[in-house]
């Protein structure tokens, strides 16, 4: 195992941890507290870093658990995906500015629909889809973060994407 540095390996994770916490807690202040608590817990367990296979998965797991505890205490149900300002949105906006106005509007409507449909997914499927499609994590990293097997991650992701695709087709076809 390589030597893990808090400054070089853990601190760069804070933005991703914040997005995950914000997605779960729905509150910027609670998300900041969650990230701070996560970083503190990771630091407190620094003597165990040598046994940890992936410090990133370890930090994401701690962050997710803390955020779920906070969200559970606050009585949050499904979290609204559209409340988060993700860098992907700005990238999509930049891409859309190169499109014709009609195409841009249509892309924005589809993105909004996918966000709404993601909110209807079970928490595990929603988390996996977010980690894979938004955060760009590998199947193995997601499995480590959520403490699932890699095949379970693939199955949940397939089911989530299939569900969203079917619901989107139904809405586009019937306007429901």
Could you describe the 3D structure shown?
The protein is built from 9 helices and no strands. The chain is mainly α and 176 residues long. The chain has 2 domains: 1-77, Rna Polymerase Sigma Factor, Chain: A; 83-176, Arc Repressor Mutant, subunit A. The termini are far apart. The relative contact order is 0.11.
- The assembly state of the depicted protein chains is single chain
Low-confidence stretches: 77-97
Judged by helices, strands and strand pairing, the structural class is: mainly alpha
What is the CATH architecture term of the largest domain? Orthogonal Bundle
Broad CATH class of the largest domain: Mainly Alpha
Domain count: the total is 2
Mean pLDDT: 80
Gist of the model:
By secondary structure, the chain is an all-alpha fold. Helices cover 73% and strands 0% of the residues. Helix 6 (101-119) crosses helix 9 (150-174).
Features:
mainly alpha; Rna Polymerase Sigma Factor, Chain: A; Arc Repressor Mutant, subunit A; 9 helices; 73% helix
Describe the secondary-structure layout.
Blueprint: H1 6-10, H2 14-25, H3 28-44, H4 55-74, H5 87-96, H6 101-119, H7 123-134, H8 139-146, H9 150-174
Helix pairs in contact: 2-3, 2-4, 3-4, 4-8, 6-9, 7-9, 8-9
């Amino acid at each position: 195992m390589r030597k893990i540095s808090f400054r070089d390996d853990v601190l760069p994770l804070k933005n991703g941890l914040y997005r995950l916490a914000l997605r779960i807690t729905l509150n910027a202040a609670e998300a900041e507290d969650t990230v701070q608590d996560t970083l503190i817990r990771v630091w407190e367990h620094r003597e165990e870093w040598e046994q940890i296979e992936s410090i990133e998965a370890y930090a994401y797991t701690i962050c997710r658990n803390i955020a779920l505890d906070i969200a559970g205490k606050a009585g949050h149900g499904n979290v609204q995906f559209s409340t988060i300002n993700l860098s992907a949105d700005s990238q999509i906006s930049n891409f859309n500015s190169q499109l014709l106005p009609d195409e841009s509007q249509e892309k924005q409507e589809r993105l909004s629909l996918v966000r709404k449909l993601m909110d209807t997914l079970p928490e595990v499927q929603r988390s996996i889809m977010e980690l894979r499609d938004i955060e760009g994590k590998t199947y193995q990293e997601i499995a480590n973060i959520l403490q699932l097997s890699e095949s379970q991650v693939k199955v949940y992701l397939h089911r989530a994407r299939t569900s969203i695709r079917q619901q989107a087709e139904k809405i586009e076809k019937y306007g429901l």
